[in-house]
Amino acid sequence: MPKKSSSYNSIVVKIGSSSLTDKSGKLDKNKLKSYVDEIASLVKDKKKVILVTSGAIASGSSHLGIKGKPKSIPEKQASAAVGQSRLMHEYELAFRTHGITVAQILLTRDAIADRERYINARNTIGALLEHGAVPIVNENDTVSIDEIKVGDNDNLSALVASLMGADLLLMLTDVEGFFMKDEDGKSYLVDEVKEVTREMEDAAGHPSTQGTGGMITKLQAARIAMYCGVTAVIASSADPALIGKTASGKKIGTKFVPKISKLESRKRWLAHGLQRKGIITIDGGAETALMKKGSSLLPVGIIRVDGEFGQGEAVSIVDESGRELARGLINFSRDELDKIKGLKTDRISEVLGYKASPEVLHRDNMVIL
Q1: In the predicted model, is pLDDT for residue 209 greater than 60?
Q2: Is residue 3, in this structure, part of any structural domain at all?
Q3: Four-point Cα dihedral 160, 241, 244, 40, nearest 10
Q4: Which pLDDT value is given to residue 24?
Q5: Are residues 283 and 232 located together in one domain of the fold?
Q6: Are 212 and 289 members of one domain?
Q7: Does the reported pTM lie above 0.85?
Q8: Rounded to an integer, what distance in angstroms lies between the CA atom of residue 277 and that of residue 310?
Q9: For 269, which DSSP code?
């Protein structure tokens, strides 16, 4: 029987710490096994599944005798060092009962930001999937520092989905999906989202009885997925069977509809693989040239420059309201750009004192969001 067109073949499943631990904060092996059973069914159905999992710090802290959540960075990293191997051991045991091999993938931001490492990571994960293995991804908390840290597994899962060009990103959490409030102040489940708005971000940024305290990073992750042509779903982890139901295309939780068809690999890397170092604000004329004419960014349309960056680093292009329009690799440093912003291209060399590129950001090194 042919598969339904609404089903997904390449899936990233993200499971958070709250979905893997019991009331005391310890790893719940029964919960873990129930998720593995569902993922194993998908693999046996020839689906390619990547698991992004939290739980290493929670698993390790209890074995170190740390009461409650670790507070200092050394304690968190020590807990991750102890817990990561224990967490992987439990996954390996659970998947082994289904005859499925697992592989540990520990990532940091620099593995995605560097183009060569990005391609290597994609090829490695792709090879594992082709051999029927399940890559299990986590951030390398043991060695992560701010400069190379993604920061949370929601955004990490979206970056992995972008990296691999997945069909679906499923983020499991302790609520049914994304909730907002109506005019009477009553909460309701938003079943479909075509645009992540500031109103939604405001609703997600404040903890409520619906448990939306951790929802803001899920919205950030959903936005990344949407702009990379990946469907994102936020759903409850209470019923593990929802993994299979969502993968088959059933309407579960909150669905975030992709804004575009899948971007090719380099565009995905430019859009979300890189950590932006600066923000460039442009006027209406430059916005029209970028968005409607497919032009490169010239200095004449630049109003303001923020951040510290060097030539070749990633920056965001925003309109006068602060809405992000594009990302890409800049041809000038912050100091250089401050000198030539607002000028016509024939004055660039005169002001800088040397021959320079006429484009601040070339179209080939930019992706429209």
Answers
A1: no
A2: no
A3: 70
A4: 75
A5: no
A6: no
A7: no
A8: 9
A9: I
